Automatic annotation (TrEMBL):
Residues 225-386 form the Acyl-CoA oxidase C-alpha1 domain. Gene3D superfamilies: Acyl-CoA dehydrogenase/oxidase, N-terminal domain, Butyryl-CoA Dehydrogenase, subunit A, domain 2, Butyryl-CoA Dehydrogenase, subunit A, domain 3. This is Acyl-coenzyme A oxidase. GO terms for molecular function: acyl-CoA oxidase activity; FAD binding; fatty acid binding. Its main location: other. One of its GO terms (cellular component) is peroxisome. FAD binds at T89, G128. GO terms for biological process: fatty acid beta-oxidation using acyl-CoA oxidase; lipid homeostasis. Residues 421-605 form the Acyl-CoA oxidase C-terminal domain. The keyword Protein biosynthesis does not apply. It holds the Pfam family ACOX_C_alpha1.
Amino acid sequence: MASMSVKHAIAAAKKLRSLQERFNPGGSDIYPALMGDEAITALIPSGNPLSVHILMFTRALREQGTDEQYEKFGRRADNNEIIGTFAQTELGHGTYLRGLEARADYDRGTEEFVLNTPKLSSYKWWPGGLGQTCNYCIFVAQLYIDNEAKGMAMFVVQIRDEETHMPLPGVHVGEIGKKMGLNGVNNGFLGLKDYRVPRLNMLMRHQQVLPDGRFVKSPVSQVSYFPMVFVRCMVARQNSNYLAQAATIATRYSVIRRQSPIEEGQPEPKILEHLTQQMKVIPEIVTAVVYRLAAANLQNMYNETAEAVYRKDFSRLPELHALACILKVATSYDSTYGIERLRQACGGHGYLTAGNLGNIFAMAAPACTYEGENSVLYLQVGKILMKNWSQVLAGRELMPSMAYISECSKMTSFPQWTGSWECLLKAIQYACVGSIRLAFQSYNARVQSAQSQTAAVNYSGLELTKAAELHGRSYVAGNFYQQIVNSPNKHQRSPQFQKVLENMLELHLIQIFFRHLGDILRFIRITEDEISALQRRLEEVLKELRPDAVAITDAFDFNDKILSSALGCYDGNVYERLFEAALKHPLNRKSVPDFFEAHLKPFMKENADNAKKSKL
Ligand SMILES: CCCCCCCC/C=C\CCC/C=C/C(=O)SCCNC(=O)CCNC(=O)[C@H](O)C(C)(C)COP(=O)(O)OP(=O)(O)OC[C@H]1O[C@@H](n2cnc3c(N)ncnc32)[C@H](O)[C@@H]1OP(=O)(O)O
Ligand SMILES: Cc1cc2nc3c(=O)[nH]c(=O)nc-3n(C[C@H](O)[C@H](O)[C@H](O)COP(=O)(O)OP(=O)(O)OC[C@H]3O[C@@H](n4cnc5c(N)ncnc54)[C@H](O)[C@@H]3O)c2cc1C
């Protein structure tokens, strides 16, 4: 499987290169590479073994290396002359970066670093492509000078001979084993023993080790985390794509499949006529659109921040970090759970490999773990919210994406309930700020009672997580509201199109309201009549969006090859394709399977003989 994936990935990368040269000659624009990875990834159901090379190895060389280091390594990586990965996670550590055990000791006598993974738990474990594909990696290690720890640093390490692909001396490298998906990616392990690299193999754009061993600290140590921020932004885009693919499949299947009359004596309707089926499928279509728009915003913020960081302006890093964390978490959680809901909406056929929903789930699900495990990133955002709440209490301005927190903090009570979009959005934001205030009170009480900040974060973890989740909802819903209601290009939309978008906004806001009704009722008084009115509006907007469901998912414009699903093909010939796929199964090559003579027949005969004996 791995070699097939590599073959497909290389073919797709070559195609991408020709497209890039045609449409973006000599450009270093990141989009073609992303589109390429997106296309390659989508075309290789078992995952793209070059993803981490494209998204992390080449970018780390460009963003963390000096111009000279880019000329030496980065240009060759961008041109796919060398293939690398990003080797940070270890068998024993993934989240707690300051606990990473791999070490780099500077030898000023030879102006080299001596790299070691001192214990089994220090082995790098998980990096994509590391097992068999890559001949280089970015090796993340704790830097030591005169045995004094200086923090994390990145090193360009060649792990295999460029001609023979043999592992180099001091390198122990291989595949970590079968996974629940992405089995074409050959995630690998790497052990290094007294492996020497020249001083100039340490990426030194932001921090340096001089020939005499003097250490020049980075002005902002967190800039070394930048490669992870980029992938978190990519996950937001990629996982909204996975959800859109699954929503397209389930929608198309739901207008082909007929089952269970709604009126006695009437013909069986398309299953999408059932209100409960609409509630399973249509909100996922809208969620895919909502996150695709949020991910695009995040991408723009990443590009602006990356340019600023290149100019040594680190001012926007904290906001990008906070948004990248919360959108990576929200998109990966909601897409993973949404894809499973969509699979279940397709009944038994949803469980067939030919439907491809299982594989889309297996591609989407690990994003809840990689690039920062979601519950850990929720806590990270919770900590950032605590810091920003202190700013609010001090009367200081907050970063733009958190400005609503300041506004809501000034409200002594929630205004008269109207049920309008603005009211629903403000309710979610108000509940978020209420949760932040409660979390802060718990966290602050713990710190005041002499708990360390780390311990206070841990023991306030449930409230911090809730506040972070509601912050994500507030940001995403606010962004969608602005795009639909206040977009500068709103006048260019036809009235019909604007109406569809407004129905999608109505559905998203009401769906989020009901999902967090408990959190909202904690801070806002809403009567049963007001809630029932929203229930009626939910049923009504599902009915209104039903006729547009197919058109919206067609607009995602996934080629049948990308969907790779007998349930979701554009022509709707589901049963023919299911049956065609079934007949291709190896077990159908013979009428009588080999196991009949070898196992089944003797088994049945033995039982029959025993039955006869017991009667005698
Ligand atoms: C569309 C095209 C296709 C795209 C396809 C995309 C998907 C597929 C692609 C690739 C396949 C998967 C590849 C996977 C790769 C990996 O998984 S790489 C390894 C990822 N590992 C992690 O993410 C580790 C998670 N842990 C952390 O990030 C950190 O330990 C932490 C949890 C954030 C804690 O940070 P730290 O240990 O430093 O301690 P803190 O006290 O929390 O933070 C100290 C201050 O630093 C600030 N901070 C932390 N992180 C960042 C950051 N990234 N950027 C900026 N600032 C950061 C933090 O806010 C604190 O600031 P303060 O001092 O002001 O409070
Ligand atoms: C498909 C896939 C691809 C990957 N690709 C790469 C790659 O290319 N390069 C790379 O370097 N890594 C890669 N990784 C590794 C990934 O980054 C780590 O798995 C991730 O960072 C989580 O670390 P861990 O697995 O060690 O879990 P741990 O850090 O051990 O966490 C385990 C669990 O403990 C809990 N936990 C941990 N810390 C805390 C905390 N502070 N507070 C509360 N709970 C906590 C959480 O529930 C967490 O799920 C990949 C992983 C996968 C699944």
